[in-house]
Each structure stands twice: as C-alpha cells, then as structure tokens.
Design a protein that fits this description.
heterotrimer; A alpha/beta (468); B mainly alpha (301); C mainly alpha (289); A: 468 residues; alpha/beta; D-Maltodextrin-Binding Protein, domain 2; 5-stranded mixed beta sheet; 23 helices; 48% helix; globular; C: 289 residues; mainly alpha; MetI-like fold; 13 helices; 0% strand; flat; disordered C terminus
Chain lengths: 468, 301, 289
C-alpha cells in the first residue's frame, strides 16, 4: 500500500514537472516582472499568439530557457524554441528562411550572416519596431547602453562591398566577440619568453614554448571552413597590414595574392606546422579551446571570451596561469582584430512580427542580459552597464590578474568587422581555408595556392552575379 | 463447367503476387515525386538565396563537374574507399562469423556483445571515436598504442590518418551487421553435406572451401551488396569527424554534394552531384545483384 | 602425428581461439566501456592528459539529461532528452512495423512466385536504398511543409521507409527462399491456400530471420540522423539529433553526450537480449525438424 502511494506521488510529481515546472510563488513572479513592467508599453498586446524561435546552442540561449515561462506570464505569448549546434542550426535556418514559410519568427544571427539574409530579403529591419512607441519604450530599453561598435556591426545598408554600420539595423547584439592572444604566463615567465608583438615574434615564442615545455607552442582552428579564418587568422592579417588589406578590393576582385597576405600566410602556416599540434588540420573551435584549457598549448589567438573557460577552476587546468595580450600588431603598431556579435533578428515571413519584436526586446533588455552574463557565463556583455556592473567587473577583473579586462577594452577601440560585405562570404571563407590546407600539406606554395583561391572566388562571385 | 472454374482461378492467381507487392510498392511510389523534383532541380541553377535567378539550364551542372578538380578527387576517394572497406568488412565479418559459429566458449555472450556497435548511431560512434583518437583531448587510443611501442598516430590531422580513421570507425560500426547475417546463414546451413564430408575424412579447411563458402555465397554477396551501397554513400562518420578534410582527403561524392547543397546553398549543383553518385551506385549494385541471383539459383539446387 | 604433437596443436588451437576471442571482445567492447567511463567523469577528468582510468565517478551527467541541470548552470524548464527518447521509440517502432506489414507479403511474392517483371520489381525495391539521402531530403522537406507532414511522427515514419523497407524485403526474401520447397509442397497437399502456407509454414520457420530483420531495421531507424535533422522539429527530434545538442558554443559537454549515448543504447540492448532467446529457440526448432 505504501509503495503504491509513493509510486502515485512520484507519478503526479513527474506529470507536474513535465508540464512545465512546479508552480512558483507569485511574489517571486512580481519581483521578476516588475523590471519589465516599468516599460511604458503594453506587453500583453500580442497575448495568445505563439512564437517559434530558432536558436544556436550557446550560453545565452541556455540562459533564456528557464526565463521563458516568465516571458509567457508577462506577455501571454507562447514560445516554442529549437536549439541546435551552430553548423546544423544555420543549415536548418537557411532551409526555413528560403521557403519563407515563417517556421521561425525570431532567429539568432550576426553581421556576416545578415549580409546573406538581407541580399536574399529574408529578414526585416528592426528600426520601425524600435521607433514605434507602442512597441518599444526607448527610455527604458536604452539602446545607447549597447556598445556603439556592436550596434554599428549589425547595421547594413545592403550595399555589396561596403555599407556595414550604415542603414537599418537588422539584429540586436547579445554579446561581443573579438579576438585576443591568450598565453601561458607561467611558461613564458619560466623560460623568459617575450610576449609577442609581431607575427615573427609570435612564431619564435611558439617555437620556444615547444622546445622548452614540450607542448605545442600555438594552437589554432584549422578545419577547412570559414570558421577557421575569421578569428585569430584574419585578425593577425588585418593587423599585419595596418587594417589596409581586405579580402576583396574595391572592384570586388579577390585579393589573397597580395604579397603582404602571402607573406603573413606563410609565416602563420609555418608557425602552426612547426610548433602547432599535429592535428591542426582537424581542429574546430572547441578542440583548440579545450587544448589550451587542458594545458596542452602555449598560446591561442582566438575568441576573447574563451577566457571564461580558461579561468574556471573546476574545469580548467590553467586557471590563474593565463596572460592576455593583443594579437600581434603590424608595422604601424596597432592591432585590428575582427568582431562578431550573436544577435537576435526577425524573419521576414514571421506571421506575428509584433510578438517577435516583444520577445527580442525582452530578451535583450538589461535585466535579461545581466542574468545571462552573471548566471550563465554569456560573455562578453554587449551592454556597457553590464560590463561595468561590479559583479561582472569582479569576475572578469580576476582573469589574467586584470590583464583580460585591460586587453579587451583596448582591443575594442580598434576592433572592426573584418570581412567585406557580400552574400557569399561563407563560400569565400571556405575557399580561403582550403587554400591554407593546401599550403599546410605542402601541395602548393603559398603564392600559388592563394592565387588559385583568388580565381575560384572570382568565379563564384561572377556565378552569383555579385560582380560583373 | 470444369474449364470455366479453372480459367477463373488462373486469372485470379496471376494477380496475387502483384497484390502482395502492392502495399510496399505504394509506400515507395510516394517517394517518386520528391525524387523527380530533385532530378528536376539538378537541371536548374537553383541557388537558395537567389530565387529570382532560377533558370532551367539543362545539363550544365553535369558538364561543369568535369572541370571541377574536387570532383575527380571525390570520385577517386569514393571508389577507392568502397573497395577497401568492403573487402575488409566482409572478410573480417566472415572470419568473425566462422569464429562465433564454432564451439567457442562464451560465444553466446559474444554474440550479444556483437550487437553493441550496431546500437550506436554512426554520428555518435564517430564522435566517440573522435574523443578516443584526438590527441589533444586525452587521446586514449594513442596512449594505449604507446604501450605496444607504436608512435602516436596523427589520426585526423594527416591525410592518411584521416582515411584510416574513417575506415576504422566505419568497420567498427558495421562489422556486426556482416557477422550477424553470415552467422545466421551459417546456422541455417544443412548438416548433411558436412556429415558426408566428415565420413569421407575431409579436413576443416577443405570443408570450408568446398561446402561452406559455396553455400554461403548468396549471403556473402548480400553482405557485399549492402556494404558496397553504404560505403559508396558513407556520410555520417565523415560528417562528424573530418567533414571531408584534411585537404579534401576524405571528401566523397556525398560529402561534396552536401557542401554544395547545404553549406553553399547551390541546390542545383548539389543535386547533380547526388545523381552522379546515384548512377554509380545503381551500376555497381545491378552488377552485384546479377551475381547474387546466379549464386542464389545455384545454391537452391 | 605423435600424441605430443597433437596435444601441442590442440593447446595452440585453444590459445589461438582464446586470443581471438579476447581481441574480438576488446575491439567490440572497449569503445563502449570508454564512453561509459566518460559519462561518469567530471569535465576536468574528461580532458586530462594522460587519460584517466581511475577517477572519482559522478552521476551529474545522467542527472543533467533528466533534470537538465549541471552545477546550477544550463538548466531547462523542460528537459528535452526524455522527449527525444520517446520520439525515437515511436518513430523506430512505427517504421519497422509498417515495413514488416508491407514487406512480408512483398518478400513472399518475390520468393515463392514466378511472374513477369519479378526481377525488375526486386531491383526497384533495392534501387530506393541506393539513392543518396540528399536527393530526397530537400524535396521531402518542401513537400512535407506544404502537405503538413513536417515535424510529425507520421511524416518521419513514412520517410524512414526509405531506410527500412528495401532492406526488410530483401532480407526476408532471402530467408523465405531458404525454406525447402518440399515443406511448402507438403502443406499445399494438405490443403493450405497461399495464405495458409504463409502463416502456417513460412512465417514460423523463418522466425529467426524475421527477428533479425526486424531488429536490424529497428536499429537502422534508431540511428538515422540525416532525415530527422531536416524533416523533424523540436517536438519530434529523435535522440540522434538530440545528442548533438551537447555541442554548445563555448564548450562541448562530452560527459553529457556520453551519458546520452549510453541511455539511448539501452532499449536496443534490451531488445536484442530479448530476441537472442527467440533466435536460439527458433534454431533448435529448425534442428528438430
């Protein structure tokens, strides 16, 4: 009898739990929603509608999930979400956007992706929503709280070859990602290795680490995909050329064969081949990051916020041993790192755009983003107020003995979106990455491989009728 | 009177096989429309983000393939890998089946354990082998090999290593399939030929060569057919580990088609490459099936 | 041969068999064991070099699957994994059942009758399994969206027929053909119609074959990845697609992925253990005849 009752209680609990969590106290409710109710808009104007959101698996999206019932109580809108890892996410997203059936109302996107979506007319500008007093209380929402560089990155005029930072805004950034150098301060100190300020010094430092400490001196993304090009590599190359070089020139001709680009590529590939890990050619972002976190690399030039993982004592073997510096500069002495933001946008085919905007507004509100950063490691914050929040300052200030925050702040002064706007950026990056692999495996010289890459890119751009 | 009844029965019975086949055919017929649509797309320049430029371009996609350097390499890898993989997997599968069929102690447990690799989706298998092989994430495989005096193998970072890795992962996942089919067949073999041979004093090797293998040949061919069809189109394992790299060393036609269709959104080209792969598979399979028909007919005697 | 030499040969044989058994066992089981160990490790232990065999185990990874929480981070209001598991069950069982229902009569027709177009139709069945999935996935995706089969169990079960039906028909055809004609003739003489022959002779005698086919079909369905990736939505994702969710943006949750793999393999393990007995029974039945 007792067993039966226990079993019944368990079943009941399981039912309640599956149906969306045990009911919480309503006092907690009001406290949570009070912040949003300060906004002078009617949150419930789209009550009863259903939204489907496409999300990339990311700490930000993880932070949103437990708050979704809160959103439902605030607005009366039902939310269904779909989360996938990045590659699968964009595949499924492209399939839906191309059909314009509106499966996803709100999507996660970013500057370079927007160029593709805008040219195909798949997403809508958000200015009308922002400037509509019925939908947005700008004085409460504080768009100016976002770092201007990030908002600018998500603006696009639709022009091919330019126009970033101009025109309508297509998505609201939820984080900032730029690229810096993380190095093993303990190893560098032990063997008197100088923190590199040029690519040549970087190759030398990598060599010394490998010789003295027996681990790869540098670890970097190497898979033949655009993802490997856009972080440390392109930041290094842009810095090497004082921000003057672009992968497409003014006439939209591919520019990989430029002698500066060839020289830098040779230096980078030689460095990776001599002092890098044997499986560089198969390293994805998480392989590189995990290698460094496991203490198996001397340096990594990649996303700044990976530091959150490096400095986590429960998972990292190098917590407290890492130093942070700018990616080596060029002859002009300045670093021009790349920039990326994950951001929320709205599908042109969304059937309930007002509801979609309310979600975006809620998800990018100060309180939601603060919670994402403090509770769920969503770094780096896109809002200045969050960055300057004492709790965040305390966490991030500890990284690298303070060198992290200083480096990131300095980096953001000159960090820019590194790519030339055009809808085939992904394809271009893939071609570029394959060229690097040809050089790495010594199938071709750097000059030849990059010249072939140029020809292939030109062919694709002509085929896509992006250039005449 | 008699002739009328006989005629009616004759007419009804001729339709019987078709009626029996009907449900299965209906299910598959529903798939013809999507396939036709795919075929149609292969004759167009369908590019997902430029819907306004959609045009029928006849066989341009197919013709352009010949001038695409990646195509030749992908074709070479597709055929080469299939040959090696089928030989390895069917050969090993036969060995394992014979092994398990013999009175080996603990073979019941072994038979149950053999099913384990089949339970894992290839994607997951590949990810797990990736953990074991990748040298920077505590590569257990190299660690164990070091005890045998083997230098650390660059599983995914070198071109040869990548191909071997794919082969190992694919074999691990599919060996049970071949072994099970052949084991099932072995266990259903008639015992009379063996008894007669034992009376005649034949050695085990001779029995294997002159009795077992010929009787098994339809099933061996079945296994070869299935493995060939699957190896030509292997995808999940490559997708989860090397994604065609490094330097296109593990790119086969299906991976190439996936890249064109799902990464670069050139549906027309991707479909054309898929159709070429399909033609390849059809040709090889019809050859194999003709062999199977012949083998099945001869063993039935 | 001297008796000493014969003894030595037998010892060598036994040793070779033992070694063979051990190698086979290790080859088959070790990756599985390693995944099991990984699923019980803390994140720090998973990436440590050299790899650890001895460590303090934790059930956090399994808890994370069901509760959706790990150290207070990454909590979800609705843990998805049980849903994915249920979807895999529904879709795989449905697909195999449908294939068996349509496949048994089809295989019977191909095995026991001669009629025009027989070889052509057999080839048609095989041919559907030839087609690379890409050729189907995009058009199916578009079609399903229009017809309303997108993100439905029915839609997936129908799509999965591309995986299970040709395989089922061909396997069953082979097994049906193995049954000696005399038994079938004997049954006909006893007055059985074609239906009687099917149900009273062929099906019982080929039960081992049918079991193997159904199990393998179930496993192929369970392991499918490409079709559900495009044709299913969140409500209908099976575990294969669900498992890749553990690749997050700033870390890969290997421990949770390992735990998910183990849990996803459990029904197939149980199923095959259950049917193991059936296979043995079926075989002994065959031997007695």
């Amino acid at each position: 009898m007792r067993l039966q009752r226990q079993w019944l209680a368990g079943l009941l609990l399981a039912m309640l739990w599956t149906m969306g969590g045990l009911p919480s106290a309503s006092a907690q409710d009001d406290a949570a929603l009070a912040y949003y109710r300060q906004a002078k808009i009617d949150w419930r104007q789209a009550a009863g509608q259903t939204l489907t959101i496409g999300l990339n698996k990311h700490p930000f999206t993880e932070s949103l999930l437990p708050l979704i019932p809160e959103f439902r109580r605030l607005t009366g809108i039902n939310v269904e979400y779909l989360i996938l890892p990045e590659a699968e996410y964009f595949t499924k997203l492209a399939a839906d956007l191309s059909q314009q059936r509106g499966e996803f109302s709100v999507i996660m996107t970013g500057p370079m992706r927007n160029w593709q979506f805008v040219s195909a007319d798949w997403i809508v500008p958000l200015d009308d929503f922002l400037n509509n007093p019925k939908l947005t209380d700008l004085s409460w929402y504080k768009l100016e709280d976002f770092y201007p560089a990030l908002i600018a990155a998500n603006r696009y005029s639709g022009k091919i070859g330019g126009g970033v930072g101009e025109g309508p805004i297509y998505s609201i950034p939820v984080l900032e990602e730029s690229y810096i150098l993380a190095y093993r301060k303990d190893i560098f100190d032990q063997y008197n290795i100088k923190v590199p300020t040029t690519i040549e010094e970087m190759a030398e430092a990598a060599r010394l680490v490998k010789k003295n400490a027996g681990i790869p001196g540098i670890v970097a993304r190497g898979t033949p995909s655009v993802a490997s090009m856009g972080t440390g590599f392109i930041s290094g190359l842009k810095s090497y050329t004082d921000g003057q070089w672009s992968e497409l020139d003014a006439k939209l001709n591919a520019n990989f064969h430029d002698p500066r680009s060839v020289k830098f590529t040779e230096a980078w590939i030689n460095m990776v081949r001599e002092s890098g890990p044997p499986n560089w050619a198969n390293m994805q972002w998480y392989d590189a990051m995990e290698a460094f976190t496991a203490g198996q690399a001397g340096m990594i030039a990649d996303a700044d916020f990976f530091a959150a993982g490096y400095e986590d004592p429960t998972k990292s073997k190098v917590a407290g041993k890492v130093g942070y510096a700018l990616i080596p500069a060029g002859p002009g002495g300045k670093t021009y790192a790349g920039l990326w933001t994950w951001a929320l946008g709205i599908n042109k085919a969304a059937k309930n755009k007002e509801a979609a905007w309310l979600f975006v507004e809620w998800a990018t509100a100060q309180r939601t983003l603060l919670n994402a950063t403090i509770g769920y490691r969503n770094y780096d914050p896109s809002r200045a107020s969050i960055m300057n929040d004492p709790r965040v300052q305390e966490i991030m200030g500890a990284w690298g003995g303070g060198s992290y925050i200083k480096t990131v702040a300095k980096n953001l002064e000159t960090a820019r979106v590194a790519w030339t706007p055009q809808p085939e950026r992904t394809r271009l990056g893939d071609i570029w990455a394959r060229a690097l692999q040809e050089i790495y495996f010594q199938r071709m010289s750097a000059a030849d491989a990059l010249k072939n890459a140029d020809a292939e890119v030109d062919k694709v751009l002509k085929e896509a009728e992006i250039k005449p | 009177m008699n002739t009328k009844r006989r005629r009616r029965r004759w007419r009804w019975e001729t339709f019987l096989p078709y009626l029996l086949l009907a449900p299965a055919l209906v299910l598959l017929a529903g798939m013809v429309y999507p396939f036709g649509l795919g075929l149609y797309y292969s004759l167009t320049n369908y590019w997902l983000q430029y819907p306004n430029r959609f045009r029928f371009i006849w066989f341009d996609n197919y013709v352009n393939l010949t001038s695409e350097p990646l195509f030749a390499r992908a074709l070479e890898f597709t055929l080469g890998f299939t040959l090696v993989a089928v030989v390895v997997q069917v050969g090993l599968g036969l060995a394992v089946a014979l092994f398990l069929h013999a009175r080996v102690p603990g073979r019941k447990v072994m038979r149950a354990l053999m099913l384990l690799p089949l339970m894992m989706p290839p994607v997951i298998t590949a990810l797990m082998w990736k953990i074991m092989m990748a040298s920077t994430n505590a590569g257990i495989l190299n660690y164990l090999l070091s005890f045998l005096g083997v230098d650390p193998v660059n599983w995914f970072g070198s071109k040869q290593g990548a191909v071997v890795s794919i082969l190992i992962i694919d074999t691990w996942g599919n060996l049970p399939f071949v072994s099970l089919i052949l084991l099932g067949a072995l266990q259903a073999l008639p015992t009379e030929p063996y008894e007669a041979a034992r009376v005649d004093g034949a050695s085990p090797a001779a029995m294997l060569r002159y009795i077992t293998l010929p009787l098994l040949s339809p099933f061996i061919l079945l296994a070869v057919t299935f493995r060939t069809m699957d190896s030509l189109r292997i995808f999940d394992v490559i997708y989860a580990t090397t994604m065609g790299g490094p330097d296109d060393a593990t790119t086969n036609l299906q991976i190439m088609a996936y890249q064109y269709a799902f990464q670069w959104y050139q549906m027309g080209k991707g479909m054309a490459q898929t159709i070429v792969l399909l033609v390849l598979v059809v040709i090889l399979s019809s050859v194999l099936m003709r062999l199977w028909n012949r083998a099945a007919a001869s063993t039935a005697q | 041969m001297t008796s000493q030499a014969m003894l030595r040969q037998r010892y060598l044989q036994k040793a070779a068999i033992a070694v063979g058994a051990v190698v086979l066992l290790l080859w088959t089981v070790f990756p599985f064991v390693w995944i099991l160990l990984t699923s019980l490790k803390h994140p720090g232990d998973i990436i440590s070099v050299p790899p650890k065999f001895v460590f303090t185990p934790t059930f956090d990874n399994y808890a994370a699957l069901v509760i959706g929480e790990q150290h207070g981070q990454y909590s979800s209001t609705r843990p998805d994994f049980p849903l994915f598991f249920l979807n895999s069950m529904i879709i795989s069982i449905g697909a195999v059942a449908l294939s068996a229902a349509a496949g048994i009569p089809a295989a019977y027709a191909l095995a026991r009758f001669t009629f025009p177009l027989k070889n052509a139709l057999a080839f048609v069945f095989m041919s559907f399994r030839f087609v690379p999935f890409i050729a189907f996935v995009i058009p199916l995706y578009l079609l399903y969206q229009q017809v309303g089969l997108y993100n439905t169990h029915t839609g997936l079960i129908l799509a999965y027929q591309l995986i299970t039906l040709p395989f089922t028909v061909w396997m069953l055809r082979s097994f049906f053909q193995e049954i000696p004609l005399e038994i079938q003739e004997a049954a006909k003489i006893d007055g059985c119609s074609w239906l009687g022959v099917l149900t009273r002779v062929i099906l019982p005698l080929s039960m081992p074959g049918i079991s193997v086919t159904v199990i393998l079909g179930f496993m192929f369905s369970w392991n499918a990845f490409n079709y559900p990736l495009m044709l299913a939505g969140r409500q209908t994702f099976p575990v294969t697609v669900g498992a890749i969710q553990f690749i997050s943006y700033e870390q890969v949750l290997w421990g949770q992925m390992a735990a998910a793999t183990i849990v996803a393999a459990v029904p197939q393990l149980l199923l095959s253990l259950m049917v193991q007995k059936y296979i043995v029974r079926g075989l002994t039945m065959g031997a007695v005849r």
